[in-house]
User: Which sequence fits this backbone?
């Protein structure tokens, strides 16, 4: 029995070492156009999958994109199931306590409210409404803090599930990233619209890394720097987020 | 996938049928169909593990040595008080942590461990990565542990149901205690255990629906992904909320599995009970 | 922090979530019990379509995982929201997890309990029924005085097990339905605690203890009622527990 255990441990160690060469990048696969599962191929696709491929090429590392549910995406990074997160994750001080971030690869983008067309909400004195958010997001924290007392906050495990409830009239509004909402509204055939004020939260989106993983962080930061300088990051952002305000985003900074 | 169809057939089917045929065989749907193998593997391997744990549990539980009997009794009775999903989530986590702990004692330097005090894993080198199939194997073992306790209960009962006369007759023939156990008691036990084991198998089938909780992209997770509304034109077909339809398909799939299992167990019972003097036996 | 302190901290963190699981069980058991009696009588009925319908219901719900039933009914209720629940003005009630959760639990336990009650109905001693008929009792009288008490006595041990399994099934509700205003249940909270410090053994053990303690309470309460049911009989009056959900 003991021999067997030693053998098993040795095997696991070898397995772990052999796999250490590839960098595993986790994404959610349910947050278009950032990351989603492509209908045609059944594989992850989107802005961050394109970006990950380019960053890894520039950083000279082998990468593999894996999917993980949003609610356990940080714990599983910390536990070492993968090495990086690229899942539209905003850089916040709270998250920085558990994980590290690279510099942002997507600029700070205000969150917006999405409603079914024709819904009127008085944001100055909103009460008795159902507000949907994806659990564990910056929007969830914001809504709970600001509207939690007078309204019902519903937390969903994916943005899609929140969207389903909005469509079905089970929530009155969803607060989510502008880039996501604009993509959804463009495809909703006029069924949904943005109302109310922009909510300026979050410090842009960066790659999430295990604390102290300076080697990978350094490589990725350098690659992001290079992509910002030569304008290829701007081009990629504009390709995936055509509704983004025109003008240089990162280039020339 | 649709490219495989000859043009005349496509023309005969019309654009609508062809479109939907193409949609339901696109990459995302193919991934859904392929993911059925996780469910089937988990059920079969989980049942095999449950049988092994069940035999061991029953052996412990019916032992005359109290040092063996008590752990057996605790094991068999534990599942009465604690939900299966809790074991199901806990065991793979605990196993991974135990492995990492073992590895940490070998590879972590004291400095690296001190730096990460209170965090997991103890040092970056101790980290172990499990692939989907390794997680699936862990899921099968946890299914085996939970439903092994159910199976142990069934097997212990079946062992008691074998008529005393059979065992006494075997002993009278001069068979040793070991021979009586392996040649008479265990072979005859199965027929009494079959109805109960069939019940345990049904429970295992239904428990395979929990695989998605271990981040395995199984049919339940993919049904959710396929049915969820999509308004993003880059992702593919724009559609509303179709989830309940996909879940209905899963429901029917599981009811079908139950139905087939029932038939198979009925046939097994008929086969196993040939020549046995019990109710319902084939003559 | 000593081990005792750590366990106590978990007990404090988990007792409110535990109330939610208890609520789910309490809200669904009475409804499931009443419905199960009707479905069991339906299955035993001589009316073929009715009997088929009841059998089909039992087969479908026992033959599929509760986890998927939860998903399916939630998304189905949602799909009916704009066309049915909104116009009726009951959408906030129907789609509230605190209502929908117990409702789906009740549908599920109805099937399992109905199978138990049906088995018990079939086992009611014929002699007693014939004697009652010979006495000239009406059908209602026979049901109230012979069938019902016999069925309850025969079914009670298996029904007790079913109630415990139903309580365990409440652990799945919040893996599916949206959490409202941060009201987490036991499994949710355990996951949250685990993600803070990765101490799986501590948090899941304390959670298991909660389930164990409440399960034991159910056994105790139902066991006491069983002794009351069997007070006129000789012999053992303890419930013999099976581990399989029948």
Assistant:
């Amino acid at each position: 029995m003991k021999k067997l255990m030693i053998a098993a441990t040795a095997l696991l160690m070898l397995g772990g070492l052999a796999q250490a060469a590839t960098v595993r990048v986790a994404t959610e696969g349910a947050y278009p156009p950032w990351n989603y599962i492509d209908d045609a191929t059944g594989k992850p696709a989107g802005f961050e999958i394109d970006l990950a491929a380019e960053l890894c090429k520039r950083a000279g590392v082998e990468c593999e994109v894996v999917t993980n549910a949003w609610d356990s995406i940080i714990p599983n990074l910390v536990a070492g199931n993968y090495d990086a997160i690229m899942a539209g994750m905003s850089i916040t001080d709270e998250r920085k306590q558990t994980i590290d971030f690279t510099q942002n690869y997507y600029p700070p983008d205000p969150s917006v409210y999405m409603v079914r067309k024709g819904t009127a909400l008085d944001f100055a004195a909103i009460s008795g409404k159902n507000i949907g958010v994806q659990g564990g997001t910056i929007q969830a924290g914001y809504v709970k803090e600001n509207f939690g007392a007078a309204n019902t906050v519903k937390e969903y495990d994916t943005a899609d599930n929140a969207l389903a409830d909005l469509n079905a009239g089970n929530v009155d509004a969803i607060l989510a990233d502008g880039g996501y909402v604009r993509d959804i509204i463009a495809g909703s055939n006029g069924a949904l619209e943005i109302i109310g004020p922009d909510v300026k939260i979050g410090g842009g989106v960066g790659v999430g890394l295990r604390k102290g993983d300076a080697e990978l962080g350094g490589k990725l930061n350098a690659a992001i720097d290079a992509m910002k300088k030569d304008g290829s990051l701007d081009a990629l952002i504009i390709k995936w987020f055509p509704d983004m305000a025109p003008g240089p985003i990162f280039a020339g900074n | 996938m649709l490219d495989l169809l000859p043009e005349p057939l496509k023309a005969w089917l019309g654009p609508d049928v062809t479109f939907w045929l193409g949609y339901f065989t696109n990459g995302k749907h193919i991934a859904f169909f392929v993911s059925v193998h996780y469910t089937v593997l988990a059920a079969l391997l989980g049942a095999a593990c449950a049988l092994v744990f069940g035999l061991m549990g029953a052996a412990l539980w019916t032992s005359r040595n109290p040092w063996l009997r008590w752990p057996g009794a605790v094991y068999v009775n534990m599942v009465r008080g604690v939900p299966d999903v809790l074991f199901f989530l806990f065991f793979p986590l605990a196993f991974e942590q135990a492995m990492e702990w073992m590895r940490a004692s070998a590879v972590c330097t004291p400095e690296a461990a001190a730096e990460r005090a209170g965090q997991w894993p103890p040092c970056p080198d101790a980290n172990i990565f499990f692939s989907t199939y390794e997680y699936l194997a862990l899921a099968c073992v946890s299914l085996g542990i939970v439903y092994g306790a159910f199976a142990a209960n069934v097997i212990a009962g079946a062992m008691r149901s074998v008529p005393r006369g059979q065992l006494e007759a075997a002993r009278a023939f001069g068979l040793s205690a070991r021979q009586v156990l392996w040649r008479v008691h265990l072979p005859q036990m199965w027929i009494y255990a079959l109805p109960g084991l069939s019940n345990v198998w049904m429970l295992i089938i239904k428990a395979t629906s929990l695989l998605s909780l271990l981040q395995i992209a199984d049919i339940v997770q993919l049904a959710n992904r396929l049915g969820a509304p999509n308004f993003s034109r880059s992702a593919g077909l724009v559609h509303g909320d179709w989830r309940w339809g996909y879940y209905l398909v899963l429901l029917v799939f599981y009811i079908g599995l139950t139905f087939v299992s029932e038939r198979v167990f009925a046939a097994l019972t008929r086969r196993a009970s040939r020549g046995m003097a019990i109710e319902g036996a084939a003559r | 922090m000593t081990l005792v302190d750590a366990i106590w901290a978990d007990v404090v963190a988990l007792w409110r979530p535990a109330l939610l699981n208890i609520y789910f069980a309490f809200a669904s058991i009475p409804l499931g019990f009443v419905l199960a009696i009707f479905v069991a009588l339906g299955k035993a009925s001589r009316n073929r379509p009715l009997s088929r319908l009841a059998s089909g219901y039992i087969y479908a719900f026992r033959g599929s995982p509760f986890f998927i039933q939860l998903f399916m009914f939630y998304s189905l209720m949602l799909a009916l929201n704009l066309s049915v629940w909104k116009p009726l003005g009951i959408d906030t009630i129907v789609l509230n997890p605190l209502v929908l959760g117990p409702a789906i639990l009740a549908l599920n336990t109805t099937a399992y309990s109905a199978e138990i009650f049906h088995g018990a109905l079939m086992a009611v001693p014929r002699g007693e029924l014939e004697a009652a008929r010979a006495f000239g009792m009406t059908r209602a009288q026979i049901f109230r005085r012979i069938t019902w008490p016999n069925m309850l006595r025969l079914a009670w041990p298996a029904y007790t097990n079913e109630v415990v399994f139903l309580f365990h099934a409440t652990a799945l509700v919040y893996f599916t339905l949206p959490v409202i205003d941060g009201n987490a249940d036991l499994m949710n909270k355990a996951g949250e605690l685990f993600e803070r410090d990765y101490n799986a053994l501590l948090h899941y053990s304390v959670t298991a203890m909660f389930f164990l303690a409440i399960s034991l309470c159910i056994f105790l309460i139902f066991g006491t009622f069983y002794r009351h049911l069997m007070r006129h009989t000789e012999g053992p009056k303890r419930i013999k527990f099976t581990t399989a959900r029948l």
Remarks:
- The longest strand of chain C covers residues 179-180.
- The interface with chain A takes residues 75, 78-79, 81-82, 86, 91-92, 95, 178-182, 191, 194-195, 198 of chain C (CB under 8 Å).
- The longest helix of chain C spans residues 3-44.
